[in-house]
Amino acid sequence: MIWDIVLLILLGLICGGIARLIVPGKESFGWIVTALLGIAGGYVGGTLGSLVFAPHQFDFRPPIEHSFIGGVIGAVILLWVYKKVATR
What we know:
The chain is mostly helical. The chain has one domain (2-86). Helix content is 70%, strand content 0%. It has three helices and no strands. α2 (31-52) crosses α3 (68-86). The chain is flat.
């Protein structure tokens, strides 16, 4: 149980960090917000992946059970949307 949480935070930190490297611009986030961005990106990427690919179900599972690439893609999408909303 505790290792699942640690792995979730670590994977979220890695996915969020990669998303911050991919999306251009400077963010003033700390490592906690970066980890939350990656965790939320895992949910977004996993949900989009389950809608696009089989078994076509709407699913909320942690990014530990989804692919790493889906977490990065979801984090990039969330960061891009945040930048678009924050600039207005």
